[in-house]
Write a structure and sequence with these properties.
Shape: globular
Largest sheet: 4 strands, mixed
Number of strands: 4
Order of helices and strands: HHHHHHHHHHHHHEHEEEHHHHHHH
Radius of gyration: 25 Å
Structural class: mainly alpha
Strand order of the largest sheet: 1-2-4-3
Number of helices: 21
Helix content: 55-70%
Strand content: under 5%
Amino acid sequence: MKRLRKFRWVALGLAVFLSVNLLSFGFPLGVQSKLPPAPSQTSSQTPGSAWTNSNLPSLEEVFQLAQDPDRTQLQRLAEGDRLYREGNFAEAERIYREVKSSYTSTLGRSNDVPEPVYDADRLGGAARVYWREAQAGFEQKMQSRLFIALEELVEDYPQFIPGHLLLVDALNQYDRQEEAIAALERATNLYPNEPSLIAAEIKVLADDKQWLEASISARQFALLFPDDEKAGEFTKIADEYLKKYQGGMKRRLIGQAILSGAINIGDYLLTGNAAGGIPTLQLTMLLLQGESSFGKQFSEAYKQEYRSRDMLVEDPQILEYVDTLGQKVAGLMGRDEFEYEFNVIADDSLNAFAMPGGKIFIHTGALMQLNSEAELIGLIGHEVGHAVLSHGYQRIAKGTLLSNLNRVLPLGDVIAELLNRAYSRQNERQADILGTRVLAGTKYAADGVRNVMVRLDKLYGDKAPPPWLSTHPPSAERVRYLEEMIVENSYNPYAYEGVDELAAIQSRIKEIIPEKS
């Protein structure tokens, strides 16, 4: 009977393992931002692509997608762009609102956001009452009194900065850090140049030991508002927290190197062969060189492989265009120690991916299937977001640890696969949010990332596996939380689109793609 039970567990494990691998093989999921498989292992696929040759759209289909029934809509958006460039912002916004489908009646940043206020006496009688109630509730530790008053205060009088700050302090006091970060996100989007709010956001992130995120928040303020008296202080804070993040990663990698060596010794003592762990140990040593060096080595290897297949686009007009947009986005992201590089691959799929150290690869299929610069900048912002948040670097570092565990734990491959998938879904959401946040700080429409996800949902939404087995959240889910983010933070989706500029590059791609196919 015991043997039968053991056999059942083995059979169950084998079934789960086969299910995971079969499901992960057959479903393209749009924008792939994890590191692609090694070129030597992709004989039937384009490097970095989840597509097989049988389901790639033809060039004619790609071009049709770029100029399809929406052509009238694109022409109207281009008309709005021309008015925007001429300085007629009100008329441009009227056209944008008329053309773009609205998913909520309250969408869009108000043009008359009130000036920030620090003195409650400057506000109405109700504000003073809320403020007194909130302070009393905070001092007496009466949560209902405190939060009812504060929530009414920040809702009705968002310009009262001390109300936001007290709300964050209260949420922290009651161990509600995630809500505190969300409250600060809303406040800093309304008043991005208020250093007291930024300082509070940095403190909340640092208290939660999110050193990299705290560093990025501080550096973004210093980059966006270099003349502010706090800019220099925030730059120092950004440097300090970046060093803490890097130091933590280094200690973690050293620990993994020691673990790899210990497991190798154990293998040798038990089997007389320690070669199985050498690749993991070598990879860990490469990671210890840092993100920039690690990413550069892998990026050069991929470029060489793409070039050998005549797939690396080296047209100066296309490269300059993509690099100009990419560098602008990267400059707002908050990590200037990377040497950002934007490459274009001749591949029909709507696809892009990021390597550590700011090395970004974008497929011509993405350039052809997007409708505007706002969408392209959203896609680029998403991929740069992966790089600045060290998603690829951390995933590889985590993968080396899991590969060690796989050698000593039963069903280790299944555990590693599911853990990596969950980690990737979380990363995708973070990159979506950071890309949208940076886009909202530019002249472009803030719904660029959201619109890319709408397109992905239309193209591939019904082909996705169950969310818990997907490396990316379902496109429909991404559309939903991005819409909520745009509304809650009063981002403006009725701003510049950049239709004509992208159309010019699409025309250039049509000229050279037949030579690259």
